[in-house]
Write a structure and sequence with these properties.
Length: 294
């Protein structure tokens, strides 16, 4: 029974590792892309339905007992909106707890089946599952900012080109929103709303602080200074050059990412194969030692 379970887990890990290696070289639609397609079709996948039943419902119940500091909750609520999560901050933490609890229950079942090592391992894994679920928000924010970083050269160069006709940043933001990539939509929507409801300087500062990218902060500072009458033409020319260099760096960075995606998965496959080969040998040695001692 133990050998069969270990073999099953190892085979799953091997196929998962091979999948990651292949997708390291071949671009496949991401989970977010598939979700966007499903949203356009107003349909949910089977995994989404299962997630709602086994994670969503328990998380909503558990969220009632979670209290978060008001400032932290407000910031986290904005961050969740930025990455497209529809849950509240309390439900986000509760979902991570529920995932961890499932692994703890699986560990208890394995211990009851006299698989103590695997059971303890599952309980240890539950801690990592909880922490990784919490870190998922930061990972999504980092990924979102990386996507914005890729679009930043186009965004800034487009503004520099329109600056000759108009200094109206609200008009520019509305027009650019029509051609912007989806990952930039949320921040542009908030910026447009802020520009309509408050002064331009405050709206641009909020925009820069929310995204927190140095190049964007420098750009918004120049726009604010330009709107106050300070001649920023030389700076914008230099900024155009910097954006051209940034666009080249973005391409190089994307190329350099490929090996980093492959190496961890290669190690995972190698370790899984090694474990599959080594486990029967260890079990045979343990059995031989038991006979010798008797």
């Amino acid at each position: 029974m133990k050998v069969i379970l270990l073999a099953l887990i190892t085979i799953i890990l091997i196929f998962y590792g091979l999948y990651k290696i292949i997708t390291g070289f071949i671009t496949v639609p991401s989970g977010d892309t598939e979700k966007n397609i499903q949203n356009m079709q107003n349909t949910d996948g089977v995994l989404d339905d299962l997630k709602k039943v086994f994670i969503g419902i328990p998380a909503k119940f558990l969220a009632r007992f979670i209290n978060i500091d008001m400032y932290k909750r407000a910031k986290m609520d904005r961050d969740l909106d930025r990455v497209g999560y529809k849950e509240t901050p309390e439900e986000f933490y509760a979902s991570a707890i529920v995932k961890g609890i499932y692994f703890i229950l699986l560990g208890i079942i394995l211990i009851l089946l006299n698989m103590t090592i695997f059971g303890v391992g599952m309980m240890v894994i539950s801690i990592f599952i909880y922490l990784s679920s919490i870190d998922k928000l930061n990972d999504k924010l980092k990924e979102r900012n990386e996507q914005i970083m890729k679009e930043l050269p186009t965004f800034i160069r487009t503004y520099n080109n329109t600056l000759k006709q108009s200094k109206d940043f609200l008009k520019f933001a509305i027009n650019y929103r029509e051609i912007a990539k989806p990952n930039f939509h949320y921040d542009l929507d908030v910026l447009i709303t802020d520009l309509k409801t408050m002064d331009e300087e405050s709206a641009l500062n909020r925009f820069a602080n929310r995204i927190n990218i140095s190049h964007l902060t420098q750009f918004t500072n120049a726009v604010i200074a330009n709107s106050k009458g300070s001649d920023q033409s030389v700076y914008f020319q230099q900024l155009n050059h910097d954006m051209n260099m940034l666009a080249i760096e973005n391409v190089k960075r994307e190329i350099d990412k490929r090996p980093d995606k492959v190496k961890p998965m290669t190690m995972l496959v190698a370790c899984s194969i090694f474990g599959l080969i080594l486990y029967p040998i260890i079990m045979q040695l343990v059995g031989s030692m038991g006979i010798f001692l008797n």
